[in-house]
């Protein structure tokens, strides 16, 4: 699959279970999020996700002219036999929206049990839908190894509740996926105070 169908992008809010933010997540079961991509740019790192063999989606504030994409990763501190490292061929900002980008891989990813694309959404998930976010961001917990992929369960909140709050995201998780019922619904976007109680995370909404 080489084409990318039309995508509409807006803002989406979600709040963690039991008011625990991204720092309160848990280690994902290894390779349970096979679409996850670790992105290494010149001076920063981000998350992203595979949407087909040739394309990665991430947040535009993770932009660089050249990005090394690592697929099939769980522990980013070690080389893994499941890993595929593929440099970018093109990195494209969305021309009108602020925080979404596409990365064209220089060669197609090899799909297997460790590397699989996430499904694009058939519709937008309603409030109270439970979703999962994953990333290698800061955990703020010395007992948690953030080199290993972390997961967090979130519930989508209404636009009204979102407008009455402000964002709460963690460095390093930018660009990562929010997956609901097996479909990508959001991209980890910019944030405000880190891990403040009762403040939802802000995501770029991905919908048809």
UniProtKB/TrEMBL annotation:
Pfam families: Trypsin. One of its GO terms (molecular function) is serine-type endopeptidase activity. Residues 22-208 form the Peptidase S1 domain. SMART domains: Tryp_SPc (SM00020). Keywords: Disulfide bond. InterPro entries: Peptidase_S1_PA (IPR009003), Peptidase_S1_PA_chymotrypsin (IPR043504), Peptidase_S1A (IPR001314), Trypsin_dom (IPR001254), TRYPSIN_HIS (IPR018114). One of its GO terms (biological process) is proteolysis. Gene3D superfamilies: Trypsin-like serine proteases. This is Peptidase S1 domain-containing protein. It comes from Sinocyclocheilus anshuiensis.
